[in-house]
Amino acid sequence: MKLLHKGIDFYMNHKKLLIMMLLVPIMAVPFFGFSPYMMRMITLSGIYIILALSLNLLTGFTGQVSLGHAAFYGIGAYTSALLAIRFDLSFVYTAIAGGLVAGFFGLLLGLPTLRLNGTYLSIVTLGFCEITRLVALNWMDLTRGPMGLTGIPLPKVFSWVIDKDAEFFYLILILIILTWVAINNLIKSRTGRALISIREDELAAEAMGINILKYKLIAFTTAAFFAGIAGSFYAHYASFIDPQSFTFDESIQILSMVILGGMGSNLGAAFGAVILVSIPEMLRGLQEYRMLMYGAVLVIMMLMRPQGLLGNVKLGDILNKKPVNEEEVSQDA
Amino acid sequence: MHKLQIEGLTKTFGGLTAVNNVAMHVDDNEIVGLIGPNGAGKTTLFNMITGLYTPTSGQLLYQEKDITGLKPDKITDIGIARTFQNIRLFPMMTALENVMIGLHTRTHSTMFDSILRTKRHRTEEKNNIQRAMEILEMVGLESKQDEYSKNLPYGEQRKLEIARAMASNPGILLLDEPAAGMNENETAELTGFIKGLKGLGMTVLVIEHDMRLVMSICERIYVLDYGSKIAEGVPKEIQSNPQVIEAYLGKGA
Ligand SMILES: Nc1ncnc2c1ncn2[C@@H]1O[C@H](COP(=O)(O)OP(=O)(O)O)[C@@H](O)[C@H]1O
Ligand SMILES: [Mg+2]
């Protein structure tokens, strides 16, 4: 445990350099001669890295614990799939459209949840996830319901058709880098500080002039936008999607990644994603106990290192936030 | 015209009238005190001025504009900033970042400026850091810029909260018991600091229990008891006002 803490301190002090050094071997991944199965796992991890990074913006940085992230992932996937199947659009457009439509629903979900905090918010986002799944399941004309959408075309980046493992790998790598840079730049700015201040003390933030509605909506919309892009990639990559791929379980999985890796840390979220995608694969025989494993991981983390591997925020603190409503404000607000 | 004018302000919680028909005003570049026994309604009055509570009745005017019922962020934008009786800093943000939050209403970069690192973002960020450092220096915390605010000692947290409020360049600064929990030295230092604010052209409304501080820096004082204003005047008048003495002695404070 001591060694772990020491390692983490070292990382904190040499962040930029370490991330750059990581990037070199990552760029070379397609040349390592991995099996197609392994490449698939790596690409899948990439998708989850984007999902975890985007949820981290909303949960780790802004303090809004959402169980609805899979819904945005699904909305992005369905939007892209439909656009590609019906209009044969290039991935550049389907991905942007997937992100925008997901972002729009993020905005819609953000609006009614403005005054909800902690567990109440989580429950509403959970409901949203379930509604989205039911719509996908029952809107037969659009989604073909439980049969799902098949034959989603390979992604095209303008005239370049992506069909090799290595190409998929580089495409997801580019998406990860774009997401990472965007979220990182956002966090280290006037907007990012406003988001973090909402996590830290919503009432004080408002008293310092932060428009809570505006910034929560920014967080919801941006997080949903990037989840939508991840969904778009997934749709083209898997060539088949159905409502089963975007259930509440999926939301839990993404949230677990953020909590394991560390809320409020991008590298932490990325690690969380890689770890939670690969461990169940390594323990093939334990596939059925996947959810149990997530539970165990979370309990162990909560006890040993509640801020996650690289994070600095504790889930418990966010779920038990200081009151923000007038009637709740203590007499010495 | 008064800078801040309060007319017939009332706030009830269920059956309890926390603030009862209070009228008061603050003029430009004045340091005004607000005192009264615990539970008199002082903080509730601050909460109404800063938009955290909606008044049950009455009116708030800032520079002749009606600000009654405006949201807290709007009030700060207009020019009223505050500190809290129970410190409410952003614990996992550094001292510098806390002050930079205070600059929020005075800056304009959008999220797109930041994601794309536009010129506006870069210049504004540079100026912000410089400005925030200047303010930290004013309260003597420049060496603590990178400390998480939760790790600062109590007295420094109080100062940081004042710095954060000052960063919004407020037309009126509201301080809620700034000396609470401070030792004698710190209180003396704070007294000098608040006095200095007047020299900088600032306007201050301060709630405080430390009578030495109040009497030495306030030009005028309002006294609340059970939600009602029982006295107002210069420190001398307040000190010798029998009703005020009664209110304090009666509560054994
Ligand atoms: N949100 C609230 N709900 C119920 N009662 C409140 C609330 N805020 C303040 N009060 C009550 O109003 C009265 C005045 O409180 P307060 O303004 O904090 O007094 P002071 O700051 O002068 O010590 C107290 O009796 C307090 O209990
Ligand atoms: Mg009080």
Secondary structure blueprint with pairings:
The complex is a heterodimer of chains A (333) and B (253).
Chain A lengths: L1 H12 L1 H13 L8 H26 L7 H19 L3 H20 L7 H21 L1 H4 L12 E2 L2 E2 L3 H23 L2 H11 L1 H6 L4 H27 L9 H14 L4 H17 L7 H15 L10 H5 L14
Antiparallel strand pairs in A: 1-2
Helix pairs in contact in A: 3-8, 3-11, 3-12, 3-13, 4-5, 4-6, 4-11, 5-11, 8-11, 9-11, 12-13, 12-14
Chain B lengths: L3 E10 L2 E11 L4 E5 L6 H8 L7 E6 L2 E2 L5 H7 L1 E3 L12 H8 L8 H5 L3 H20 L15 H14 L4 E5 L7 H16 L4 E4 L3 H7 L2 E6 L2 E6 L1 H5 L2 H9 L3
Parallel strand pairs in B: 3-8, 3-9, 6-7, 7-8
Antiparallel strand pairs in B: 1-2, 1-4, 4-5, 9-10
Helix pairs in contact in B: 3-5, 3-6, 5-6
The structure holds adenosine-5'-diphosphate and magnesium ion (MG).
- The CATH topology of the largest domain in chain B is what? Rossmann fold
Q: Which ligands accompany this protein?
A: adenosine-5'-diphosphate, magnesium ion
The quaternary organization reads as: heterodimer
Order of helices and strands of chain B: EEEHEEHEHHHHEHEHEEHH
Helix content of chain B: 25-40%
* Lateral arrangement of strands in the main beta sheet of chain B: 6-7-8-3-9-10
- Report the principal-axis shape of chain A: globular
Shape of chain B: globular
Structural class of chain A: mainly alpha
State the helical fraction of chain A.
Answer: 55-70%
Proportion in β-strands of chain A: under 5%
Low-confidence stretches of chain A: 325-333
Number of DSSP-assigned strands of chain B: 10
Query: Strands of the biggest beta sheet of chain A: in what spatial order?
Result: 1-2
